[in-house]
Amino acid sequence: MSEDFVFQGWRRPDGRMGIRNHCLVLATVACAAGVVREVGRRLPNVVAVEHAHGCGRGGSDMGLQVKTLAGLVQNPNVGAAVLVGLGCEVVSAALLKGTLASSGKPVETVVIQDVGGSKKAADQAEALARRLLGELEELPRQKGTAADLTIGLECGGSDTFSGLTANPAVGKAADRLVELGGTVILAETTEMIGALGPLLKLAESEEVAAKLKAKVERQEAWAREALGPLADVVMAPGNVESGLTTIAEKSLGCVTKGGSSPIREVVDYADRPGRKGLVVMDTPGYDVESLAGMAAAGAQVILFTTGRGTPVGFPAVPVIKISSNSELFEAMPDDIDLDAGVILAGKSADQVGEQIMDLLLRVARGEKTRAEINGQAVFAIAQQGPAF
Amino acid sequence: MAVLGIRVHPRDNVAVVAADVQAGDVVRLDDGTEIRAVDAIPRGSKVALGPVACGEAVIRYGEEIGRATKDIAAGEYVHTHNLARGK
């Protein structure tokens, strides 16, 4: 199968390949959310994204917001975008558009205060989005291969089986994709606390190892400063209910999803990898913020493992949900795409890894994931400082 | 009937039980090793494969996941009541 990892995608002006061809209607600030939601109601084919960001934070957080929002527009699955701003915010439509010139994509803007309020803004944004949707339909498709793919890895609602079934199986798929020339992003720095042992063995160079170590140690220091003794159990209550006792136990299971390829590079949140192969991105463990970082870096698809069961998806980027146990697969069939719990019944991680590669190819060829079918798409950016 | 216990690495001194275990049940690893549970252990939780003294490392995936906060006997349920990670 994998020798024929070929799909028909959309080559963007910057050379990267989309597996979807979405028109994004993006709020640049929380205040534009209502307008964006209204456009989404009128035009179900657009990807309408609202969020709580765009103003009221310190300099470094505002920088992260601009980088992440711009990265979302530049994601190869997005063909064109309408940016909807309010007019008096920090992350204005003009500012964001200014950072996007090099992407070569059609980007239009609507500013609520300039056009006379919400209703007129929604009318204008709808008209622009209609035009862009028509233009996107005319774009020819081109041949893409595994080497065109960047996949993000995520686990959420982990249980003790995650590190025995779903994560090792994803690790096998990650190894295969790297062999085929693709890029794999392992994220969630919180879930590397206590797992530096196996990770450092994969570092390609001393420089990569030193950077990885510094990131994980800093994350642990932050956790210790903020949470005190709870830093050793920096997990959701459901993780502990499932039998996970310490963050190290959770982390050691989490990092198996990266597979066994050399780690080529460590990048900051939402930064685009400069290398192919396995790369590590510095993100929080909090799923929705971690997904935003990987999508902004250009991931066209996410492999997401779960033991407790989570419906979370992401705008414009298909999320493939893989259960760590078959009870979950049976209990939440509408949210889970593939069951790795069969490993407990005797299947090998290699076999399930191959199933994941098959599914990845089908999704690259257009098959919708459960999260896409369910319209599950949340968006949040990792923030560090206080709100002002 | 024996319940499957999953040990990932030969160094591990705990295994994860694949089904709910009652006190007195046998947990069997894939290499045939058997351990008799002394506690009820919920599915997905850990059973001690041998005694672990207070302060000693609890090992899973071949790596330390924390230290015993009290003496743990072979067959005991291992979770937050007797295992913690701390500096």
Nutshell version of this structure?
The complex is a heterodimer of chains A (388) and B (87). Chain A has 388 residues and is α/β, with parallel strands linked by helices.
What does this structure look like?
- The complex is a heterodimer of chains A (388) and B (87).
- Chain A has 388 residues and is of the alpha/beta class.
- Helices cover 38% and strands 17% of the residues of chain A.
- Chain A has helices at residues 33-42, 59-74, 93-98, 112-115, 118-138, 166-179, 196-202, 206-227, 237-241, 247-254, 287-296, 326-331, 349-364, 370-373; strands spanning 6-11, 17-18, 22-27, 47-49, 78-85, 107-111, 142-145, 150-155, 183-186, 263-267, 277-281, 301-306, 319-323, 338-339.
- In chain A, strand 5, helix 3 (93-98) and strand 6 (107-111) form a beta-alpha-beta unit.
- Chain A starts with 5 loop residues before the first strand and ends in a 15-residue tail after the last helix.
- The model of chain A has no long low-confidence stretch (mean pLDDT 95).
- By secondary structure, chain B is an all-beta fold.
- In chain B, the strands form two sheets. Chain B has a six-stranded mixed beta sheet with strand order 4-3-1-2-5-8, with no helix packed on it.
- Chain B is globular and about 35 Å long.
- In chain B, strand 1 (3-6) and strand 2 (14-17) form a beta hairpin.
- The N and C termini of chain B lie far apart (41 Å).
- Chain B is 0% helix and 36% strand.
- Chain B has a single domain (3-84), classed as Archaeosine Trna-guanine Transglycosylase, Chain: A, domain 4, CATH 2.30.130.110.
- Chain B contains no helices and nine strands.
- Chain B has strands spanning 3-6, 14-17, 26-28, 34-36, 46-48, 57-60, 63-68, 77-78, 83-84.
- At the A-B interface, helix 10 of A face strand 7 and strand 9 of B.
Main sheet characteristics of chain A: 7 strands, parallel
Q: Which band does the percent of strand residues of chain A land in?
A: 15-25%
SS class of chain A? alpha/beta
The gross shape of chain B turns out to be globular
Distance between the termini of chain B: 41 Å
CATH top level label of chain B: Mainly Beta
Q: Ranges of chain A with pLDDT <50 over ≥5 residues? A: none
Which structural class do you get from the secondary structure elements of chain B? mainly beta
**What oligomeric state is this?**
heterodimer
Please, how many helices of chain B?
Answer: 0
Mean pLDDT of chain A: 95
Tell me the greatest interface: A-B, 26 and 24 residues
Topology-level CATH name of chain B: Archaeosine Trna-guanine Transglycosylase, Chain: A, domain 4
Q: Compute the number of structural domains of chain A.
A: 2
